Amino acid sequence: MYNLIAIIAAVFYVFSTAIIILGLVYQVGVRSNVTLISALLALVLHGFLVANLIWIDDGQNLSILNVALLVSFIISLVMSIAMLKIRLWFLLPFVYSFSVINLSLVMFLPSTFITHLENNPKILVHISLALFSYSTLTVGALYALQLNWLDYQLKAKKVLVINPNLPPLMMVERQLFKIISIGTILLTGTLLTGFIFVQDIFAQSKVHKGILSFIAWFIYSILLLGHYYKGWRGKKVAWCSVAGSIVLTLAYFGSRFILEIIL
């Protein structure tokens, strides 16, 4: 049954993606109502699948693929809600494609990593902060890429700049730094709770997560300081955002991917 739900959710995501791409390519108005309804149906099925795959009778199955499925759900939900306020059509095909990939992987590569977070609420707080900080900063990286692309189009005086489906440059920039600021605060909370609540944080299997997470925090802190005090914009912001997101991905999923998928 879960495989069927995953397939239907993926189909709705693909349908929304196709509508958006056609609207962008031909520079006509994206059929927002149809896109939103299709995305909403996909999100409902996606969320149902996440809940049933993670919260099982034996505890919580926080396998790497289930966590990735949860992260993709959070990102898709946040970006779909943001779409109601500003035109984010350029980003949504990437976001929805990420969800489709995760839905496909869960179908063909089921994995298990049982935990019991109900017995350790402090760790639940730490994991929740980690998931939301990673999701928020990943959204920030997507915003940064869109900002850099819009800036390039503007400087090159491309016709796409006047595409009615694309958001104003300054609006994207304001949203970007709000998102990165929130994500950095959440990441700070993740590091603090990890240091306080995780007893074996310096164990060989976990120490790399702390080091890489701190490196990502340092990158984002330098980015924010550079923007607010030095006026950083454009490529510097995009590179720092993407670099921070990659480092966090390695921190959160690197070793788990090797242990659960490769080995």
TrEMBL record:
GO cellular component, one term: plasma membrane
Membrane-crossing segments per the record: 6-26, 33-56, 62-82, 89-111, 123-145, 176-198, 210-229, 236-259
InterPro entries, sorted: Cyt_c_assembly (IPR002541), YpjD/HemX (IPR052372)
A GO BP entry: cytochrome complex assembly
Pfam families (alphabetical): Cytochrom_C_asm (PF01578)
Keywords (A to Z) from UniProt: Membrane, Transmembrane, Transmembrane helix
GO molecular function annotation: heme binding
Record domain Cytochrome c assembly protein: where: 38-262
Protein name: Cytochrome C assembly protein
Annotated source species: Candidatus Photodesmus katoptron Akat1
